[in-house]
Amino acid sequence: MRKTFDGPDGQPRCNWCAATPNYIHYHDHEWGFPVDNDTRLFEKICLEGFQSGLSWLTILNKRENFRAAFEGFDFHKVAGFDEADVERLLGDAGIVRHRGKIEAVINNASRAREMVEAEGSLAAFFWRYEAPDAQEIKHELASTTAQSIALSKELKKRGWKFVGPTTVYAFMQAMGLVNDHAEGCKSRLEVKRARAQFTKP
After folding, report:
1. How far apart are CA 48 and CA 43, in angstroms?
2. Does the N terminus or the C terminus of the chain have fewer Cβ atoms within 10 A?
3. CATH tag for 4-197 (out of 3.80.10.10, 1.10.340.30, 3.40.50.360, 3.40.190.80)
4. Which 3 state secondary structure label does DSSP give 55?
């Protein structure tokens, strides 16, 4: 079975982004490219937590609303949210109104601040779990790896919530800690080059 499809420009892309034009833009410009910005890393791991049980398209379509609701995912600000903020967010129809997930973001913001103090940055911590090229997986159905299981375990140990190995693996795929673009996908070599030029924090 072919792992790619031909996009509207005739170029091959990963099959998963055939579902909607929104996926194509996300796939071409974000997914898999290495990220070392702490705010983006925090945002992504929070949004992956919100995605649990839902489709990524649901979250992607609401991403700007999430950013507005959570102060641009500035974890220094989110860590100061209180019960009034939780109630405000539960009333916000622009996001996923799930108390457990909302409270997890606030909790994780405090954990992120602790991590920056201990490790220097979120990026410095997360990039320890990068999957080297030799270990890049080539099976599309994988939902966890040894790296994602180890990262999930360490995050939970540090008090983070909604960071199971499947959620963490999706985060790793998106933030470039593994190049999981399909063989033949137009972005696979682009991401490989970006990862080669990337300076790990």
Report:
1. 9
2. N
3. 1.10.340.30
4. coil
The three-state DSSP-derived secondary structure of 4-42 is EEECCCCCEEEHHHHHCHHHHHHHHHCCCCCCCCHHHHH
Given pLDDT bands bounded at 50, 70 and 90, which one contains residue 201?
A: very high
| Catalytic residue IDs | 26, 48, 56
Phi, psi of 149 (to 5 degrees): -65, -45
Q: Where are the domains of the chain?
A: 4-197
Q: Which tens digit of pLDDT belongs to each residue from 137-170? A: 554 556 888 899 999 999 999 999 999 999 999 9
Q: Residue 134 — pLDDT band, cuts 50, 70, 90? A: very low
What angle separates helix 38-51 from helix 165-174, to the nearest 10 degrees? 130
N-terminal to C-terminal alpha carbon distance within the chain: 38
Residue 195 tokens, joined: 């990862």
Instruction: Tally Cβ neighbours within 10 Å of residue 58.
Output: 12
User: Which positions make up the binding site for Zn(2+)?
Assistant: 14, 27, 181, 185
Which ranges of the chain does DSSP label H, i.e. alpha helix? 21-29, 38-51, 56-61, 63-69, 75-78, 83-90, 99-119, 122-126, 146-157, 165-174, 186-197
